[in-house]
Specification:
single chain, alpha+beta, three-stranded antiparallel sheet, 8 strands
Length: 195
């Protein structure tokens, strides 16, 4: 009878341990089974590392231990917190090194694609600002014509209509310029985080 109780308690303990382990594993994001899209060589202060960075799901994953070792920094993992401490700063004995991580609209984009989008947006801003200048010149022209044709109601009606349409297009151009500039700021943040 004792053998059966030991066997039964062993099976129950095994089931509890197996269930707890699998539920914990479900909480951890895993790269196992994900396709590696490419590799990047990693250089720190001009020196190549033995380990390469990998690209999975559009994101580069860098060998953090190798990077911190090459910088002479200490890497400490405490639960879910990674602490990097560097003693390279002459003003203090030990300082924490900030690791830039970008998590915005362009997360996962490679630098080449970010640079391409940045060029497109800069061209959009430039072209739209030229359009805006031309629209403002048109409004000035309409105001001069309004003075010239002050007695002609039909012509003034046409000028009012043209002025209203031009002002609407001008407002749209200003909105687009602001939108493009905001997007450029976001792209510059993404590029800075990757460099």
């Amino acid at each position: 009878m004792k053998k059966w109780s030991y066997l039964l308690s062993g099976v129950l303990i095994g089931a509890v341990v197996a269930t707890a382990g699998s539920s914990f594993a479900d909480q951890v994001k895993s790269l196992v089974g994900e396709k590696v899209a490419g590799e990047y060589a990693v250089k720190v202060n001009g020196n190549s590392l033995v380990e390469n960075a990998i690209v999975v799901d559009g994101k580069a994953h860098v060998p953090l231990r190798a990077v911190t070792d090459s910088l002479g920094a200490n890497l400490k993992v405490d639960g879910k917190i990674i602490q990097i401490e560097s003693s390279n700063n002459p003003s203090s004995k030990q300082t924490n090194t900030e690791v830039k991580i970008y998590s915005g609209k362009y997360q996962g984009w490679p630098v080449s694609k970010l640079e391409e989008r940045k060029s497109e947006l800069e061209k959009f801003v430039s072209d739209t600002e030229k359009d805006k200048e031309n629209l403002q010149k048109s409004l000035e022209k309409y105001n001069k014509l309004r003075e010239e044709y002050s007695g002609n109601k039909k012509m003034l009606g046409n000028l009012d209509s043209e002025t209203k349409g031009t002002e609407e297009v001008l407002q749209e151009a200003e909105t687009n310029i602001a939108k493009y500039k905001t997007e450029l700021e976001e792209i510059n943040k993404a590029i800075a985080a990757l460099k």
